[in-house]
Design a protein that fits this description.
- By secondary structure, the protein is an alpha+beta fold.
- It has two domains: 3-169, Aminopeptidase (3-Layer(aba) Sandwich), CATH 3.40.630; 178-335, Gcn5-related N-acetyltransferase (GNAT) (Aminopeptidase).
- The chain is built from 13 helices and 14 strands.
- Strands 1, 2, 3, 4, 5, 6, 7, 8, 9, 10, 11, 12, 13 and 14 form a 14-stranded mixed sheet that branches.
- The radius of gyration is 21 Å and the shape is globular.
Length: 372
């Protein structure tokens, strides 16, 4: 049957777009479902402030009336101005293992980018670097984290057959935190605090963290400024991501660090919500919220979610002090496993930190690129 593509406009098309991954990964033990309401907001111009400076369109592919694939196309004008290139991003790509379906989707997205004057396509990428990024190409037998992605192995084959090449990879690690690593970190942290006069800001209540949201995203802007796919966060974007992510934090795993009364860095780790989100299956109510709240209060695995240090201080061991704080809290909670977020393969400074732990590099995801 012929593949028919429809631009996402109606309530039914939005529902089909959001629900498709739940069919594609049905009974998959490693895929972590997103919250459907959050996914719907992400493609809605009234709820996603990034659409003030991005053009975006989304499509669903149908065969015989049944959804078989989906794709989004994004032009982030702020990023294109920053790098001086005409880049279009493909996003939220999901499809059954069918070449006709994939080609129809990618032709539609690439054609739209070309109509808008773009000369290069890359992805999978979201609106910003805090959206899901990259295609999983290694680690299919490991549970995805909230900050990562999961895809079937056949996705890579279809993308490469279309002519896309590697742009850059993210690497993810699993760390086993034991007494030896904690003792070493504590000794290093004590020396660094004494030498540089570092002070730690700790939190007991989530409500106490919210006033620091603007500071946190300012630190992210400073620390990530030279990384690929990054743009500064404006006021509305800070509001959106604060509302989205601060509701899943455990305040005991959030730390800021000061030097001479200046906040120079932070680390935000979160209890792993992967298993809780699998139980929620896309819905907060009636039971999803219960599973998520339980995981936040009683963690078994910690995800290193987000961190940043002002560049002029990054060689003073700020990260060592922050890791020490988180590891001490893990020991108190009886938690020994950490999942890192994706680190660019070129970020040797951060990757070298993980080699101080008993670790495995178990996942790899890729951004692809192609002239169009």
């Amino acid at each position: 049957m012929t593949v028919v593509l429809r631009v996402v406009r109606t309530k039914k098309e939005k529902k089909d777009f959001i629900n498709l991954p739940f069919e594609i990964y049905k009974d998959n033990a490693y895929w972590v479902p997103p919250i459907k309401a959050d996914e719907l907001k992400s493609i809605d111009p009234d709820n996603n402030p990034a659409m003030r400076f991005c053009n975006a369109e989304f499509w669903v592919a149908y065969r015989n009336g049944k959804p078989t694939g989906r794709i989004g196309a994004i032009i982030n004008h702020k990023y294109n101005e920053k790098v001086g290139k005409k880049l279009g991003r493909f996003s939220k790509l999901e499809f059954i293992n069918d070449e006709e379906v994939f080609v129809a989707l990618m032709d539609k997205a690439v054609g739209w980018m070309k109509e808008k004057g773009m000369t290069t396509a890359h992805g999978p990428l979201g609106f910003t670097n805090l959206d899901n990024q990259g295609l999983l190409i290694e680690g299919f037998d490991h549970l995805a984290s909230v900050a990562s992605v999961y895809h079937h192995p056949y996705y890579q084959k279809h993308i490469e057959n279309y002519g896309f090449k590697k742009e850059i990879d993210w690497l993810e690690f699993r760390l086993n935190v034991g007494e030896k690593a904690v003792s070493k970190a504590n000794r290093g942290a004590a020396l660094l605090k004494k030498r540089f006069g570092f002070e730690i800001i700790r939190f007991e209540k989530t409500s106490d963290v919210f006033p620091y949201a603007k500071v946190l995203f300012g630190l992210v802007d400073d620390a990530f400024a030279t990384l690929p796919f990054v743009i500064p966060f404006d006021k509305e974007m800070v509001r959106m991501y604060t509302e989205k992510y601060f509701k899943i934090i455990n305040p005991k795993y959030v730390y800021f660090i000061k030097k001479d009364e200046e906040i120079i860095g932070f680390m935000l780790a979160v209890p792993s919500l992967s298993e809780a989100l699998q139980k929620a299956n896309g819905k907060l109510f009636p039971f999803g919220f219960f599973h998520i709240k339980k995981a936040i209060k009683h963690p078994h695995v910690i995800d290193f979610f987000l961190g940043g240090v002002k560049p002029k201080y990054e060689h003073e061991g700020v990260a060592v002090v922050l890791y020490s704080e988180i590891q001490n809290q893990m020991m108190k909670d009886g938690v020994h496993i950490v999942e890192t977020t994706g680190n660019f393969e070129t970020n040797h400074h951060v990757i070298s930190n993980w080699k101080n732990f008993d670790h495995i590099q178990h996942k790899r995801r890729r951004c692809f690129i192609k002239d169009i």
